[in-house]
Design a protein that fits this description.
CATH class of the largest domain: Alpha Beta
Shape: globular
Radius of gyration: 17 Å
Strand content: 35-45%
Helix content: 10-25%
Strand order of the largest sheet: 2-3-4-1-5-8-7-6
CATH architecture of the largest domain: Roll
CATH topology of the largest domain: 2,3-Dihydroxybiphenyl 1,2-Dioxygenase, domain 1
Number of domains: 2
CATH superfamily of the largest domain: 2,3-Dihydroxybiphenyl 1,2-Dioxygenase, domain 1
Structural class: alpha+beta
Number of helices: 4
Length: about 270
């Protein structure tokens, strides 16, 4: 988990297949900015707007995430969407279609920032594809308030892992566990994302979905802050081999995870 973000390739770009950005589409942009600004210390500046009003969240002056405005007539699930780097978004989108996925938006240009598509895998989990130009992606990692990991929660890993391996060139490594269907996706020998098969425990109201983890200085304090700011707890803080984690939701219902990664694991 600790190596997934922060490693860029030539010219500072993320290697293809690496999670490079995360974005959230909401109805109340002002309230959402207030929530995440108070929780993570983010500040905001306007970003490219091919799909409507959009801002980029900054931490210490560097970009960490995007927040966009949904039109009032669009009743889509409010959810964080990870974007995976690609050298050719059109080719990746075509591969997604050939492998049984769906491309719902694009490919299209996001001004001078880059080129994007929004797709879903065969089980319905939504993700983005990003071909960088001026905007390379997340500019700071490894500190509180930054994306730390992306985990796909789905019914089972076998067929879905093959989809992502074909689309993005991942290598797959099972996570040893007697009671868990769990694999880690690798690029160039480095873990970049996970897939967790939940079987019947997969929430029916959400279906298959990607879950973004944000780093927290103190998971318990961050959870309390979420509650104070009008969010709620989905899964209370608990200890794991990777660190102390919790799953929460913002006031519009976007679910995300908080994790405090131990210094010894970095």
């Amino acid at each position: 988990m600790t190596e997934a973000r922060g490693s860029t390739g030539r010219n500072g770009a993320y290697p293809p297949g690496t999670p490079c950005w995360v974005s959230l589409m909401v109805h109340g942009m002002a309230a959402t900015q207030e929530f995440y600004g108070a929780l993570f210390g983010w500040e905001f500046q306007p970003g490219p707007q091919p799909l409507g009003p959009y801002v980029r969240a900054l931490l210490d002056g560097r970009e960490v995430a995007g927040i966009g405005q949904l039109s009032p007539d669009r009743h889509l699930p409010i959810a964080w969407t990870p974007y995976f780097a690609s050298d050719d978004v059109d080719l990746t989108a075509e591969t997604v279609r050939h492998c049984g996925g769906t491309v719902g938006v694009g490919p299209l240009d996001a001004g001078e920032a880059g080129r994007l598509a929004i797709a879903s895998d065969p089980a319905g989990a939504v993700f983005g594809i990003w071909q960088a130009a001026a905007h390379l992606g997340t500019g700071i990692t490894g500190v509180p308030g930054t994306p730390a990991w992306d985990e796909l929660l789905t019914y089972d890993t076998e067929n879905i892992a093959k989809f992502y391996e074909t689309a993005f060139g991942y290598d797959e490594e099972p996570v040893p566990s007697a009671d868990s269907d769990h694999v880690t996706l690798h690029i160039n020998g480095r873990p970049v994302a996970g897939i967790h098969g939940l079987g019947p425990a997969l929430p029916r109201d959400r279906g298959a979905h990607w879950l973004t983890y944000f780093e927290a200085a103190d998971t318990d304090e961050a959870v309390n802050r979420v509650i104070e700011l009008g969010g709620h707890v989905v899964k209370p803080p608990h200890d794991t081999p990777q660190g102390r984690m919790a799953t929460v939701a913002d006031p519009e219902g976007a679910v995300f995870a908080l994790v405090h990664l131990e210094q010894a694991e970095r």
